[in-house]
Specification:
The chain is α+β, with helices and mostly antiparallel strands and 79 residues long. Helices cover 23% and strands 42% of the residues. It has a five-stranded mixed β-sheet. The chain is globular.
């Protein structure tokens, strides 16, 4: 089952995250199917490719709770 989830990048104690589509059983920083966005918790910057996310959501991919909250904040999905 595919999921929209976060993978961690960045330095120690300064995380940054990529929003990716990946198999749910793959380890956190495993190989993604596709990268669809970026999130930086320090600067609160969210960069999302809305067309790709809508395409994957149309295929039935489920976002994790954190990614779901980010998508709501970016107004890509409704409450």
């Amino acid at each position: 089952m595919l999921k929209l989830r976060l993978t961690r990048t960045g330095r120690k104690k300064q995380p940054a995250y990529r929003i990716v589509v990946m198999e749910h059983s793959t380890r956190r920083n495993g190989r993604p199917v596709e990268q669809v966005g970026y999130y930086s918790p320090f600067t609160k910057e969210i960069t999302i490719d809305a067309d790709k996310i809508r395409k994957w959501l149309g295929y039935g991919v489920k976002p994790t709770q954190t990614v779901n909250n980010l998508l709501k904040k970016a107004k890509i999905i409704e409450d």
